[in-house]
Amino acid sequence: MTLLIGSLTIGLILSLLAFGILISFRVVAFEDLTVDGSLALGGATAAALIVAEWNPVVATLAGALAGATAGAVTATLHHRFDINRLLAGILVMTALYSVNLRVMGKSNVPLLSHPTVMSYADGLATTLFGHERIVQLSSWEAPGRDIAALLLMFAVAVSTGIVLFLFFRTNLGMAMLAIGDNSRMIRALGVNVGLMTTFALFIGNGLVGLAGALLAQYQGFADVQMGIGMLVWGVASVILGESLVRSKKIGLLITGAVMGSVLFRLLVAIALRWGLNPNDLKLITAVAVFVALVLPKFLSRSSKLVRRPSRA
Amino acid sequence: MLEVAGIRKTFFAGTPNEVRALQGVDLKIEPGSWVNVIGTNGSGKSTLLNAVAGAFYVDEGRIRLDGIDITRWPEHRRAKLIGRVFQDPFSGTAPTMTIAENLALASRRGQARGLSLALNGSRKGELRDRVAAMGLGLENRLDNPIGTLSGGQRQSLTLLMSALIRPSLLLLDEHTAALDPKSADQVIRLTQQFIERDRLTTLMVTHSMPQAAFLGDRVIMMDRGQVVHDISGAEKKRLRPEDLLSKFEELRRANQLDESAAEMLRTQYV
C-alpha cells in the first residue's frame, strides 16, 4: 500500500514534468532537450534555498523560476543565434550540470532535517487523521503522512492543469497553441513566433523546475543526477496520455498527461516489484517510448491490410 | 495606399544559384484599388508579394504603406496592416483548432494578445454572423476542427480571417490555384464580395487570365523581376483574356530574340 501511494504521489509530481513536455513538444512543436537539466536545476535551487532556511514555498517557486530561465535561454539560443533546436537544448542541459553543482556546492544535498513543503503534508495529516500515525482505509492501512502528501500533490497537479487549461482559452494561450499547429499562419496574424516560443519554453521548463523542486523535497534530497532520463520519462507520459484520450484537444491532452504520468509510474512500480532490475529501468523506458511511437502506425497499417479486401 | 519604390532582391547572391528576383520594381496602389499581378514562372510576382508581406527584407528600395515606411518591419509587425491568403489552402488555417478558434485568432491580427478569454458567448455570436454571411453553411460547424473541411472551405475561411479586421492592404497569392474549378469560383465570388464591401486595397497574384482580365481595376505584368506592362482605366475595362495571352506571346518572342542575339554575340566575339 505504501508502494502504491508512493508511486501515485511521484506520478502526480511528474505530471508537472509531463505538462512541461506537452507545452514544448506539442504546443509549440519545439524538441526541447533542456528538460534533464532544468529538472535538476529546479531541485538544486529549491534544496540550496531550503538549506539556507528560506520558506519552502518560496524556495519551490524559486526552483520553478530557475527552470523557466533555463528554458528561455534554450529558446533564445535557437531564435537569436540560429542554433539548431536540439543542439541549443543539449548546450544548456550540459552547462546546467555544472551550474547545478555550483548551486548546491556538492553533488547531493539532504533535506530531511529541514522544513520542506512535505512538512505541510505532516500538518495536513495531523488535521485530517489526528495523531494516529497509521490510517485504516477499509482493509488497507497506510501512514497518514503519505496519504496527506498524496492529497497535497494531487491538489498541486490538478490546479496546475486547470490553470494551464484556462490559459489556453485566452487570446495569448490560443496564439501559443497555433504555433505548433501552423506557425506560418500565426505569423501572418501578427504573432512574433520567436518571442512566443521563448515564452512557451519559459513556462514549460518552469513547470519542469517545479516538478524537480517538489521531487527533491518529497524524496528528501536533491541530487545532481536527478534529471537524467527525465525527458524520456516525460515524453513517455505524454504519449501514453495521448493514446488514452485519443484527442488533440488541449483540455484532454492536459488530462491525458496527468493520467499518463501516474499510469506510467504505476507500471514501473509493478515491474520493479516483479523483480525488474532498477539498472535496466532507463533501457525499458526507452524501449517503451519506441513501442508507443511505432505501435499506432503499425496498427493502422495492419488494419488497412485487413480492410482492403472489403473495399475491393 | 501602397508605395513600392525601386525595390531589388537577389537570392543566393555571389553563388552559382544567384537569382535576381526583383530588379527595381516601382509600384503605387491607390487606396481602394484592386491590382492583379501576372507573369510567367520566375517573373518575380510572388517575390513582390512576399517582399511587401515581409517574408524577407529587400536589398534596396523602400516600401511604404498608408504613409508609414515598413521596409525594415519584420513580418509579424506588418501583419497589423496586411491581410494575407496563401496559395496552399492548408497554410492559412490551424488544422487541429476549431473554426471558431481560428477566427478568434484572426480577430486579433496584429493586436496585443492578453489574458482575456479568446472566445466568450458574445464574441462567438459575432463570429457566427460573419461566417453565416458567407453563405457556406459553416456557421453550424464552428466547433469542428478546421482540418476536417475541404480545401475550398478552408480557403474561404482564410479569406474571411484576412479581412476580419479591415486590412490596409490585402495580399492574395494565387489563392484559387490549388482549388477545383467550383471551389475556385466560390472563393473568387467571396473575394469580390469582401473587397467591394470594405473597399479593400488589394494586390492579387494570379495565373488565371480571365481573373486578371475581368476582376479588379488594374493589371500589371511582370517579367524578369520588373514590371513590363501596367494596364488600368478604360484600357483595363476593355481588356480580355486573349489580349493578355498575346502580351505573353510578345514577351516570349522578345526574350527569345534576346537570347538568340546574345548567342550570336557570344559565338562571334568570344
Summarize the structure in words.
The complex is a heterodimer of chains A (312) and B (270). With 312 residues, chain A is mostly helical. Chain A has one domain (2-227). Chain A is 77% helix and 4% strand. Chain A has twelve helices and four strands; from the N terminus they run H-H-H-H-E-H-E-E-H-H-H-H-E-H-H-H. A two-stranded antiparallel ribbon of chain A has the order 1-4. Chain A has a two-stranded antiparallel ribbon with strand order 2-3. The model of chain A is unreliable at 307-312 (pLDDT under 50). With 270 residues, chain B is an alpha/beta fold. Chain B has a single domain, classed as Rossmann fold. Chain B contains nine helices and ten strands. In chain B, the strands form two sheets. In chain B, strands 6-7-8-3-9-10 form a six-stranded mixed sheet. A four-stranded antiparallel sheet of chain B has the order 2-1-4-5, covered by helices on one side. Chain B is globular. Chain A binds chain B through residues 167, 169-175, 177-178, 181-182, 184-193, 248, and chain B through 53, 74-77, 79-80, 84, 86, 90-97, 101, 104-106, 108-111, 113-119, 145, 161.
